[in-house]
Write a structure and sequence with these properties.
With 547 residues, this protein is mainly beta. It folds into 2 domains: 18-333, Tachylectin-2, Chain A, CATH 2.115.10; 338-535, Exo-inulinase, domain 1 (Jelly Rolls, Sandwich). It is 3% helix and 48% strand. The protein has helices spanning 301-307, 393-401, and strands at residues 18-29, 32-40, 49-56, 62-69, 79-87, 93-100, 106-113, 124-126, 144-145, 151-152, 158-166, 172-180, 186-197, 202-211, 227-235, 240-249, 254-257, 268-269, 276-283, 288-295, 309-310, 312-313, 317-321, 329-333, 341-352, 357-363, 366-374, 409-419, 427-434, 443-449, 464-467, 476-484, 487-492, 497-502, 514-519, 525-535, 540-541. The relative contact order is 0.14. Bound molecules: 2,5-dideoxy-2,5-imino-D-mannitol. 2,5-dideoxy-2,5-imino-D-mannitol (DQQ) is lined by residues 21-22, 38, 49, 81-82, 98, 145-146, 203-204, 234, 276-277. 2,5-dideoxy-2,5-imino-D-mannitol binds at residues 21-22, 38, 49, 81-82, 98, 145-146, 203-204, 234, 276-277. Residues 12-333 form the Glycosyl hydrolase family 32 N-terminal domain.
Length: 547
């Protein structure tokens, strides 16, 4: 059983072995955080999907339990697919999921805890009302899935969304609206919360309120003048999670995105790297909303099988509306993650001349690094419009790596992590600022260059990133990078733009992995401060009984 495992993470959630995908139905109950995930108990590839179950008191250290939900009835015998959790009025949690039936049709179903007094909620029973929904006439029964957390509507009835696709061309993504008086008996309203042509199947919708003025999270049913709503969908066609901030009209149960100019009306991405099928939940323990997202592998299926596992969950992220620009959300690793920090090192006031590279004297593959750059002078005070956040930032980053010259730029400057001393391997996270030279606004790109991340040739090395919104009051550009073997999560400007990388260095592993600050731009930049930490490994106590 001893396989060479340089890519297994040290402080991200992973089951002991085999395949994992979407996060499902997270919630907090009787002192425990419950986390479920799409899980194949038999192999490191997708198939035979069940709900794996893990619990934690701090969202950092985990205990896995035996499978919570597996396919054993006609409506879910081929698989228990993604879904969400809710609380009954008496406080008991229930789970909603999609079943893949014996006839390969998608159904919606639910489960209740066998013993609500058990804080670990080990045993779940399928509800007698199952299936709670079958594909409505006229809809595609193989594109009808992923129920959301229900919320209480203005009419006193519960509402829930199920992702689907409609239209002759099957390209109009939609979120079908269901209602219920008791959370057990559901009916289709015949309506959608929103539909957008050209987006294809909407997987894993998520719909929730955010406070206009506060970082604190809101319980899913909260409405009112201080509230905006977020609709997130996972686009099967693009394999990315998109969201919009908008207005929910509770009288008509419709939702309108505030900024329709953005690409698809959904426009923004939580994460410009590997991050899919995400799900938020309201953590009533700490009064915040937390986002979980799945980061799939970027290596071959053969590699997954050889190492015996596939995929990680990103660190849970605190998520809220940017108080300075209510057009977009901000994400930050939950504060509990900071408890893993060790051996802090700080340096201040480093000038990075053109072409400079500075060794941070920090080695290893479990790191947390925060860098604050002084805002390059010529760009200071130049605001950027939210339209700039649209998806083509990704293309701009690729152009940069290809060496295409942009007019009037600062950078690329940033960090190389998981880097060998000769830079034969390196994962580079950097900023690039430019304008058109005609007095227009500056634009700031935040990019991840993975082209040199591994000497291996059969791993995905796509470059990604996007624009970062810079407010007039910003005096620095900051980045936080969390390195964990094959997973790197990078947050710019306090979490306004984020991307997750999966990388597989061959030489930059263990003590050979170094960190450098670099400036490959033509102008010098100043590092106001850089702090770095080693990150402790988390404790995951794996279930040892029957799966
Ligand atoms: N994964 C699940 C589906 C969902 C998809 C199946 C998204 O329910 O639509 O494993 O990754």
């Amino acid at each position: 059983e001893h396989v060479y495992q340089p890519y297994r993470t040290g402080y991200h959630f992973q089951p002991r072995k085999n395949w994992m995908n979407d996060p499902n139905g997270p919630f907090f109950y009787k002192g425990w955080y419950h986390f479920f995930y799409q899980y194949n108990r038999n192999a490191a590839v997708w198939g035979n999907i069940t709900w794996g179950h893990a619990v934690s008191t701090d969202l950092v250290h985990w205990r896995t339990l035996h499978t919570a939900l597996k396919g054993d009835d006609w409506y879910d015998v081929k698989g228990v697919w993604s879904g969400s959790a809710a609380f009954l009025p008496n406080g008991t949690p229930v789970l909603y999921y999609t079943g893949w039936s014996n006839a390969s049709q998608q159904t919606q179903a639910m489960a209740v805890p066998e013993d609500p007094s058990d804080p670990l909620l080990k045993e779940w029973d399928k509800a007698p009302q199952n299936p709670i929904a079958l594909t409505p006439p006229g809809y595609n029964s193989s594109q009808f899935r992923d129920p959301t957390t229900p919320w209480m509507g203005a009419d006193g009835e519960w509402k829930m969304l199920v992702g689907a696709v409609v239209g002759e061309d099957q390209l109009t993504g939609t979120a079908l609206l269901y209602t219920s008086k008791d959370l057990f008996n559901w009916k289709f309203t015949g309506k959608s919360l929103q539909s957008i042509h050209g987006t294809g199947m909407w997987e894993c919708p998520d719909f929730y309120p955010v406070d206009l003025h506060q970082k604190k999270g809101l319980e899913t049913s909260v409405m009112g003048p201080h509230v905006k709503h977020v609709l997130k969908v996972s686009l099967d066609l693009k394999k990315h999670d998109y969201y919009s901030v908008g207005t929910y009209d509770a009288k008509t149960d419709s939702y309108t995105a505030d900024n329709n100019k953005l690409d698809t009306g959904l426009g923004l991405r939580y994460d410009y790297g590997k991050f899919y099928a995400s799900k938020t939940f309201f953590d009533q323990n700490k009064g915040r909303r937390i986002l979980w997202g799945w980061a799939n592998e970027s290596s071959s299926v053969a590699d997954d099988v050889a190492k015996g596992w596939s995929s990680v969950q990103c660190l849970p992220r605190h998520i809220w509306l940017d108080p300075e620009a209510t057009t977009n959300l901000v994400q930050w690793p939950i504060e509990e993650v900071d408890a893993l920090r060790m051996n802090k090192m700080t340096k201040e006031g480093i000038t990075l001349e053109k072409g400079a590279m500075v060794d941070l004297m920090r080695k290893g593959t479990q790191l947390d690094i925060e860098v604050e750059f002084a805002m390059p002078e010529s760009s200071e005070g130049k605001a950027q419009s939210p339209e700039l956040l649209a998806e083509n930032g990704h293309l701009q980053c690729s152009d940069l790596v290809a060496g295409k010259k942009m007019a009037h730029g600062f950078g690329p400057f940033g960090l190389h992590v998981l880097a060998t001393e000769d830079l034969a391997e390196r994962t580079s996270i950097f900023f690039y600022l430019y304008n058109d030279g005609k007095g227009g606004d500056w634009k700031t790109l935040f990019c991840g260059d993975h082209s040199m991340s591994s000497l291996q040739t059969d791993v995905d090395k796509t470059t990604y990133g996007s624009y970062v919104t810079i407010h007039k009051s910003d005096t620095s550009l900051s980045v936080r990078v969390l390195v964990d073997h094959s997973t790197v999560e990078s947050f710019a400007q306090g979490g306004r733009t984020v991307f997750t990388s999966r990388v597989y260095p061959e030489k930059a592993i263990g003590g050979a992995a170094k960190v450098y600050l670099f400036n490959n731009g033509s102008e010098s930049v100043t590092v106001k401060s850089v702090s770095s930490w080693d990150m402790a490994s988390i404790n995951i106590k794996f279930w040892s009984g029957a799966p």
